[in-house]
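Problem: given the chain below (479 residues), write out its structure.
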Amino acid sequence: MSGPPPTDIPPGTVEQKYQPDVPNFMRLGSVPVNYLQEVETDLLEPVVFQEGSGSTVDGFVRFQLQRKGFLHSHSKIFVSLTPPTAVTRAIYPPNVGVGSVIKKAVLKVGNKVLNEISDWDHLHAFHSTKISNENNVERELYTTGRYMSEQFDRSTGTGVGFVAQGVSLMTHREPDVTLSSGDQDCDQMPFAVMDGGSPAESPSYAVDLSDLFPFLKVHQLPLYMMDEPVTIELTTRPPVGHRAVKIAGTADQSFVIDRPEMKFCADYVFYGASDEMDRFAAAHKSLTFPFVDYRSISTTVSQASLQSETVRNLGMASRMVTKVITMFNGDRAGEGNILLNLGALSPAISSGQPAGFSYNIRYNDKFEFSSNITNLARLYTLLQGSESMVFVSRDQYSSQGGGYEGAAGHTFEGINQTELRGRFFYNSTRLTGGRVGTRGIELHVKSDEHRTSVTTLRNYCEYLRSATLEGGKIDVFNL
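Solution.
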């Protein structure tokens, strides 16, 4: 342990300057809160910008970082859409906000890939369920465009009084109420609405770098120690039908990215008052840091195909897989859907009861569960246990409980909120059997009657990787 310099120096010795220990600047939690920090912020323009077209052609954006200081993990990418003149009112989906624009995110050092996540918007929708209602409506609505927050719906119709009829989306605006029927409609905040007649007033939101890349959840990139260029590559969804929810106006119009607003706000952190960063680099000639990445595996399915047991091999042989996330999705394009079809579809429900469903995972020649899980309540418990806390109601998960059904006449921006029922059917399982063997992971699912709009079985495998920085070069490998 380091201590204060000695006060009495023996005769004949050479006095050396006292140098306290330098903390590990790589790990966000190891730097003392009172340590001297200087932050330099740059607004970087894309080095490559290509807009998509129609409903099928993706766009592409690339940013290149300057090699100085430590890249702060909460640096932002600013995104804004320009609404077409034929659309008089449009909003972002409540569960992902401006994240609906991004399809794929890649973080590269030289020609090595640190993080690469396909179908990033679907994974972002899953992770966004871990944000509380209060955080969404009081913070995320203004920073990322997410506002998935619920409140009790209290009708003022005759004979009903102030008894809560159900739940509905909330943005802290008073609803427009029809007194005779008790029906009501709640609108989005004015600043968050896109109007083709006033494109300059469209909101500009930010995507957090640590949301794009799990590596940056726990590590900061020491850019000043790297000799290779660091780049961020984003693939964007097509501009028609994929980026915004149309409320009023002509259908199938292009919501293009506002090119002057598209910037990377890079925060570079410098530690210490003198040569602490140089001493850190000298003491850490080789840096190794583990992190997680996500592999997306998608399979085309239908309501009919799911009625017989579906076995899907997810691969991941010889890798340390910690978690498997499973969801059922419809076609991604859907500007008339309040979630832009970024929800996870649950089994169909009849007379208040969901259709039969079974789930299990097999790897290393054994099943994760001794028998297939058929109880949706247990699946929900596994989801909560795997993710610590997920803010998803029973009605959102499996269309049970009657939260939105009780307020069927209550709309949000004119859209019936019953569209949110059974649209958050996420399944997440932590694997306990160690490294995956050569046969990979098998997913076993069966749904007696899934929703007719289901087209895709989508899985994300969370697995461990490690990166080593030595001599200014970085190497990445799977654990």
